[in-house]
Design brief:
The complex is a heterodimer of chains A (210) and B (123). By secondary structure, chain A is an alpha/beta fold. Chain A is built from six helices and five strands, in the order αααβαβαβαββ. The radius of gyration of chain A is 19 Å and the shape is globular. With 123 residues, chain B is mostly helical. Chain B is 61% helix and 0% strand. Chain B starts with 6 loop residues before the first helix and ends in a 6-residue tail after the last helix. The chains are: A alpha/beta (210), B mainly alpha (123). Chains A and B meet through helix 4 of A and loops of B.
Chain lengths: 210, 123
């Protein structure tokens, strides 16, 4: 339908839609309002995540209170805390075991960049080196309100996804990988230290690309 | 025309089957269209704790573990009876005290037996 005509009609109180649009709306509405997070925490951010799920902040208002103890039942991975190099393969394996469609929120300075432990020999400098992170939440730790804001941001992201076309969710894209490669413990670092598909590496201002 | 006396049974059976199979078929159709299965070796792995499965889950456990279980029971039962014993200690008669000591002696005998057998050594 012509968008101009649709706009004109909606001003007069007549709302029009197509089957495809209605299907897309229903599909995304259902997905965004029942995000089930995976029940795990890696460090102090997990305490804030727990606070967000309790009565005072009440993540249940956004349909995400069903923390699942098994990755087979979860849609959302909240990486809450410092990801050590010892823990990174386990996090990637858990992500791989989650059914599609699945989303990742990196919560806190450590999960998005390594945070205050970035220079440490045993800390991964951001889980987005291995996983396709959808929402980054800065803060050390972020307050529960920040987590809720991140969740709402993710819901808006899901709401805008299409069933056809380039903005499809990952599980409907034929070329998207089923599983992300799990790093192994190398002699000094993880092997490989990053997944070039999700972390291409941006050129640094001085031209060094490490 | 006379209808068959058991026709209603067939109709109800058909309705029941449709009631069960219909939603399942719809769910299957939805899966085919909007949620195609994408299995993989990691996704189909047995464990859900993030660790790699190490061996066959049906491996045998060593029969010697029964001794640990029995020694655990010695201490467990002892603690269960010692607590009320300690609480009621002030008002107990000499006979009750001796009976309790006899009970403790039995359990300590079990511990001494295990000790002399060398169970407490970690090998």
């Amino acid at each position: 339908m012509d968008p101009g005509l649709q706009n004109e009609l909606s001003k007069r109180g007549i709302f029009t839609t197509t089957w495809q649009e209605l299907l897309r709306f229903g599909y995304n509405w259902g997905r965004k309002n029942s995000l089930w997070p995976l029940n795990f925490g890696l460090a102090c951010c997990a305490i804030e995540m727990i606070a967000a799920s309790m009565a005072r902040f009440d993540i249940a208002r956004f349909g995400a209170e069903v923390f699942r103890p098994s990755p087979r039942q979860a849609d959302l991975m909240i990486v809450a805390g410092t990801v050590t190099k010892k823990m990174a393969p386990l996090v990637v394996r858990l992500y791989n075991q989650m059914p599609e469609p699945k989303y990742v929120i990196a919560m806190g300075a450590c999960a998005i960049s390594g945070g205050p432990f970035k220079q440490g020999y045993n800390v991964l400098k951001g889980i987005d080196r291995f996983l396709p992170v959808d929402v980054h939440i800065p803060g050390c730790p972020p307050r529960p309100e920040a987590l809720l804001h991140g969740l709402i941001t993710l819901q808006k992201l899901i709401e805008a996804q299409e069933i056809h076309g380039p903005n499809k969710p990952r599980h409907l894209q034929e070329t998207a990988p089923n599983e992300y490669p799990i790093p192994r413990y190398g002699r000094f670092d993880l092997d490989p230290p990053k997944n070039p598909e999700v972390w291409p590496g941006r050129p640094l201002p001085r031209g060094e690309n490490k | 025309m006379q209808e068959h006396p058991y026709l209603f049974l067939a109709v109800l059976a058909a309705a029941g089957v449709a009631f069960c199979v219909g939603p399942l078929a719809l769910a299957r159709l939805w899966t085919m269209l909007f949620s195609p299965a994408r299995p993989g070796p990691v996704k189909n792995a047995t464990y859900e704790c993030g660790l790699e499965p190490q061996s066959d889950p049906w491996r045998r456990f060593h029969a010697g573990y029964y001794v640990y279980a029995i020694i655990f029971l010695v201490f467990d039962v002892e603690a269960v009876f010692l607590l009320p014993f300690a609480v009621a200690f002030g008002g107990l008669s000499v006979g009750a005290f001796l009976a309790m000591m006899g009970f403790l002696l039995l359990l300590v005998e079990g511990l001494v037996w295990a000790w002399r057998k060398g169970v407490l050594q970690w090998r």
